[in-house]
Design brief:
The chain is mainly alpha-helical. It contains four helices and no strands.
Amino acid sequence: MLSKLKTVAKLLKQELSVYCLLLKNSRTPRISKIFLGVAVGYAISPFDLIPDWIPVIGQLDDLIVVPALVIIALKFIPDELVQECRNKVYGGLPAL
């Protein structure tokens, strides 16, 4: 169980690195940069749409809002650019 959590944490860290590269890349469309920036900001900010102290729903909004923003942002970015950034982060290994 612990090794599985470590693997997931490593993958999340690598994907975050991919998103940072995409934010810095001049070929990334502005709309995608906005969505990725909002996703990262929402994930690290203490403010939520639904407060975390509300059981289940409070944590669930983080699990829905952030991935939705990332998915929307990736829709506007050319697949070649995303793959290029993933290759840089993953060292040429195929990403999941």
